């Protein structure tokens, strides 16, 4: 049986180079569902530690990092075999993380501990722990690597961490329950979603002042239920897709004018997302319905729903 | 007795942006109350019920405050059974305009009516009485604990949703039982239902030994019904009713399926984090009154953070404005009703082991927010003080 599995695995990796995969963490199944971006089918289900949430690949895709929140560890996995190579010390309850452009330092939000932990993936040592607000979650790092951002859900702030000194150099207030952060416009803007506030705020990185705020309005859904969480930019950074949680919609936003151009109906409680290789398809994790919606990016239409595990949370692409 | 909790976290990181240095002292004023004896010895009332929630709220506030130069403190004043609450309140009001009250409704009114309290913001984190949000409302008294009317409406929405509309009730004799029973009756009327039969709990024997013999006969007289409502807010007899009824029917109200402000089984919407922070702090489960006091503390914190002010008039205006949003771990932002100062909030319907539903249930619509299908809505409000 084992040999057969291995043969199958080798078989999939031998597919043409265009074939990519979306890796989805299933928070309440302790597994990852691997979706083939061409066939749009689940090809593998891989066991992980307890309560997998944040997921990201190393630059060369040779390893995948997984926040196993309830195991209090970050797992380092060989994506070809699904074998856990080793665990990284992560601090308690790691929820979400970001890999520094140096491909070496992981900045991890420890949700239950009000701490951001910095781990060196080579020496496997914690190199810093930074006190942040309560329930840190959203993590981002600027393209030049100078800033790491942690957003804290109960403190309602974005904390700007200088990656040299590993100290907080600024705190900016955001709306209630910030969930996700991303740098944009070549690193000159920081975008932060606020779940309970129902907004996405845009900050000027230079001055750290708020320069815009996006509000959402989904027809037939009470504003209280429109709760922005994860978001992703298209390749040209002109468009951003924002998951709106229990409103079961993804908003399409013009990243230059900050105007909402469209809303796309997806599965229930849409959380995070990632694109396929050429960014023609977007894959959203829908926690409550336990599936992934595939969106045709050009047409802005959902084209398929893929059943995955219980409470899919994070999504990450690998070629 | 007085104790002061400093904001321990305040010194962690120096604020990088220039915010004004502000001190926000909050006082937790508790009137000790007579606890009537109950049949079971299983669930002692925690001594720090309510207070522990305020303490958690303090540390939540202190984290944000630490980044902004806002210094929160919590002072605890414990007035003994025969103590003078009004004098203690007068003394407290010389030090802070922010007071969280842990006292019965009548005592809260005696504090709210003090001349010294007229510009203060008092929070009711302990009394469910709908009257405090109605005829007896006060402009300086805000309510973070839901009213009995909100709890009863939550249950009645579920009753209608399940079509369990043939209702009967057993109610206790304590004043809290009576007011809860009144709210259940009023709410049944509101949703076009009727509680057909009501029996008073009159037993004075120890039910741990003979519930199995007595309760079937007692409930036989209720005839057939869909759901047995229990008004037993002291948790005296209600726990012995389930499974001992003549008809095989579920129970709800004070026992069975219970509408609450908070319960240990609430875990969605990030609530698991709040629960675990609370257990880490207090080594016990978080109760509804802990939630009420926590929400009061957080409401103050949220208002101070957003206004960068410690002036009570500024904070009150902000708290009652549509700018105010509290992330209360119930899946949607919480805000205050401008007509009676009640924090609008979802009401979980829980058993000991699970969240069964959360009101407002789907389908109960409202022109402003579905949360206003729970409790006293603006058109029916008899509160004058907020006009």
From TrEMBL, chain A:
Signal peptide annotation: 1-19
Keywords: Signal
SUPFAM superfamilies, per database record: Nitrous oxide reductase, N-terminal domain (SSF50974)
Gene3D superfamilies: YVTN repeat-like/Quinoprotein amine dehydrogenase (2.130.10.10)
InterPro entries xrefs: Host-pathogen_enzymatic-act, N2O_reductase_N, PQQ_b_propeller, WD40/YVTN_repeat-like_dom_sf, YNCE-like_beta-prop, YVTN_b-propeller_repeat
YNCE-like beta-propeller domain mapped to chain residues: 17-314
Record-annotated membrane-spanning stretches: none
Keyword Signal: yes
UniProt cross-references to NCBIfam families, sorted A to Z: beta_rpt_yvtn, PQQ_ABC_repeats
Protein name, UniProt field: YNCE-like beta-propeller domain-containing protein
Organism: Actibacterium atlanticum
Automatic annotation (TrEMBL), chain B:
UniProt name for this protein: Leucine-binding protein domain-containing protein
InterPro entries in the record: ABC_transptr_sub-bd_PQQ (IPR022478), BCAA_transport (IPR051010), Peripla_BP_I (IPR028082)
Organism the protein comes from: Actibacterium atlanticum
Span of the signal peptide: 1-20
Keyword Signal annotated: yes
Keywords: Amino-acid transport, Signal, Transport
GO biological process: amino acid transport
């Amino acid at each position: 049986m084992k040999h057969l599995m291995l043969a199958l695995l080798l078989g999939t990796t031998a597919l043409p180079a265009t074939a990519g995969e979306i890796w989805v963490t299933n928070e309440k199944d302790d597994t990852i569902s691997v979706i083939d971006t061409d066939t749009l089918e689940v090809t593998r289900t891989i066991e992980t530690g307890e309560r997998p949430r944040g997921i990201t690949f190393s630059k060369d895709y040779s390893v995948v990092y997984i926040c196993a929140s309830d195991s209090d560890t970050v797992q380092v996995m060989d994506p070809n075999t699904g074998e856990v190579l080793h665990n990284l010390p992560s601090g308690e309850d790691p929820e979400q993380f970001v890999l520094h452009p140096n491909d070496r330092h992981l900045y991890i939000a420890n949700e239950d501990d009000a701490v951001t932990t910095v781990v060196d993936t080579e020496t496997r040592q914690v190199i810093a722990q930074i006190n942040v607000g309560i329930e840190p979650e959203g993590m981002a790092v600027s393209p030049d690597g100078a800033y790491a951002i942690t957003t804290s859900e109960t403190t309602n702030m974005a904390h700007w961490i200088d990656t040299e000194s590993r100290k907080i150099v600024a705190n900016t207030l955001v709306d209630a329950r910030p969930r996700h952060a991303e740098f944009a416009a070549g690193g000159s803007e920081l975008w932060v979603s606020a779940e309970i506030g129902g907004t996405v705020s845009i900050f000027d990185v230079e001055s750290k002042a708020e320069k815009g705020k996006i509000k959402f309005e989904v027809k037939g859904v009470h504003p209280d239920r429109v709760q922005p969480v994860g978001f992703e930019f298209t390749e040209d950074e002109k468009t951003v897709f924002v998951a709106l949680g229990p409103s079961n919609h993804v908003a399409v936003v013009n990243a230059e004018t900050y105007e909402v151009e469209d809303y796309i109906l997806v599965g229930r409680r849409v959380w995070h997302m990632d694109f396929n290789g050429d960014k023609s398809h977007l894959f959203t994790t829908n926690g409550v319905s336990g599936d992934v919606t595939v969106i045709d990016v050009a047409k802005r239409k959902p084209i398929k729903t893929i059943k995955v595990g219980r409470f899919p949370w994070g999504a990450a692409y690998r070629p | 007795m007085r104790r002061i909790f400093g904001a321990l976290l305040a010194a962690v990181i120096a604020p990088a942006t220039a915010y004004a240095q502000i001190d926000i002292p909050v006082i937790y004023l508790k009137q000790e109350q007579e606890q009537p004896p109950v049949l079971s010895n299983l669930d002692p009332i925690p001594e720090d019920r309510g207070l522990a929630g305020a303490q958690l709220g303090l540390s939540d506030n202190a984290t944000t405050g630490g980044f902004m130069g806002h210094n929160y403190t919590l002072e605890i004043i414990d007035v003994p059974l025969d103590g003078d609450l009004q004098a203690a309140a007068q003394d407290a009001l010389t030090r802070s305009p922010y007071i969280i009250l842990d006292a019965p409704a009548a005592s809260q009114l005696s504090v709210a009516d003090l001349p010294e309290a007229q510009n203060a913001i008092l929070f009711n984190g302990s009394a469910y009485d709908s009257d405090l949000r109605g005829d007896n409302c006060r402009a300086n008294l805000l309510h973070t604990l839901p009213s009995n009317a909100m709890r009863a409406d939550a249950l009645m929405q579920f009753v209608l949703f399940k079509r369990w509309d043939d209702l009967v009730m057993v109610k206790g004799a304590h004043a809290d039982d009576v007011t809860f029973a009144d709210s259940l009756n009023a709410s049944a009327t509101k949703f076009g239902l009727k509680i057909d039969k009501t029996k008073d709990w009159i037993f004075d024997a120890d039910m741990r030994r003979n519930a199995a013999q007595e309760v079937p006969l007692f409930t036989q007289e209720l005839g057939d019904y869909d759901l047995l409502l229990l008004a037993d807010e002291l948790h005296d007899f209600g726990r012995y009713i389930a499974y001992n009824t003549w008809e095989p029917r579920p129970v709800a109200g004070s026992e069975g399926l219970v509408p609450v402000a908070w319960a240990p089984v609430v875990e969605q919407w990030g609530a698991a984090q709040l629960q675990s922070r609370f257990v880490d702090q207090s080594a016990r489960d978080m109760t509804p009154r802990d939630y009420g006091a926590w929400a009061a503390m957080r409401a103050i914190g949220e208002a101070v953070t957003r206004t960068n002010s410690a002036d009570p008039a500024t904070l009150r205006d902000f708290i009652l404005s549509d700018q105010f949003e509290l992330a209360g771990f119930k899946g949607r932002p919480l805000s205050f009703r401008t007509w009676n100062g009640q924090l609008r909030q979802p009401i979980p319907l829980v058993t000991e082991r699970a969240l069964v539903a959360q009101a407002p249930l789907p389908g109960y619509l409202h022109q402003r927010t579905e949360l206003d299908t729970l409790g006293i809505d603006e058109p029916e409000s008899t509160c004058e003080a907020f006009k």
